[in-house]
Every structure is written in structure tokens, then in C-alpha cells.
Amino acid sequence: MRKKILSVFSVLVCVVMLVGCGKKTLEKKVSSSELKQMNEQASAMIANNSEFKDCKIEINGNDLVYKYWFSFELSDAQVSALEKSASSLESQAKTLKSQLEKNYNLSNITVSYIYYDVNDKEVFKAGV
């Protein structure tokens, strides 16, 4: 009886492991070196831009997130101007989402852009 329980348990563990291995996500498809390179390129792009103090690209599951930190506090007018750019950012996110889904043979990818002020307060978010 004990051997049967152990053998059934072993089979269940193997099935669970195989199901877990079969999951395909952007996070699993993009290597850590690719993500590191993407972050280095993004940092290099903002290095000569005094508006931003930092940026970071993160991937969690199928969620790709671009985070930008301004080097100053934003006024209400500046936040409003960012909000007006939402449709442009959403269009850019749709294009990137489509390319990623095609290149990595995935679906249900989300792409987001999040902007923070100098005090790490989220001031704006856009994406698809």
C-alpha cells in the first residue's frame, strides 16, 4: 500500500513539474543577459537627458514594464502634458506588444510605461 501511495505521489510530482515547465512567458523567453542589455541601452539613452535620473525595464511573466524617474518634481501642468501623450505611448506599446508576441510566439503580453517623480511618487502610467 505504501509503495502504491509513493508511486502515485511520484507520478503527480512529475506531472506538476512538467506542467510548470510547459508555461511560456516573456520572462522565461527573454534571457537575463538580453534584459541586462536592454537596461544598459535604456540607461545610455537617458544619460544625456537631464529630465530623467534613472530608468529600468522589468519583465514579470508576460508583463513588460518601462519605468522612468524624473530628476525633479513635476508641476500639475507637466503631469497634464504627460497625460496628453497617453495615446502616443499606447500606440507605441501596441506596436511593441505585437512585435514581442510575434518574435517570441506568445500572446497576452502587456507593455506599460510608468513615470515617477524625483521622490519616487508615480505620476503617470500608460500602456496596453
In short:
The protein is an alpha+beta fold and about 130 residues long. It has a single domain, classed as GMP Synthetase, Chain A, domain 3 (2-Layer Sandwich), CATH 3.30.300.250. It has helices at about 1-20, 25-30, 30-45, 75-85, 85-105; strands at about 50-60, 65-70, 110-115, 120-125.
- Report strand order across the widest sheet: 1-2-3-4
**Strand segment count:** 4
Helical fraction equals 40-55%
Strand content: 15-25%
Query: Largest sheet at a glance?
Result: 4 strands, mixed
CA-based gyration radius? 21 Å
Shape: globular
Average pLDDT figure: 82
Tell me the span between the first and last alpha carbons: 53 Å
Structural class: alpha+beta
CATH class: Alpha Beta
* CATH fold field value: GMP Synthetase, Chain A, domain 3
Total of domains:
1
Descriptive account of the structure:
There is one protein chain. The chain is α+β, with helices and mostly antiparallel strands and 128 residues long. The protein has helices spanning 2-21, 26-29, 32-46, 76-84, 86-104; strands at residues 52-60, 63-70, 110-116, 122-127. The chain has one domain (24-127): GMP Synthetase, Chain A, domain 3. It is built from five helices and four strands, in the order H-H-H-E-E-H-H-E-E. The radius of gyration is 21 Å and the shape is globular.
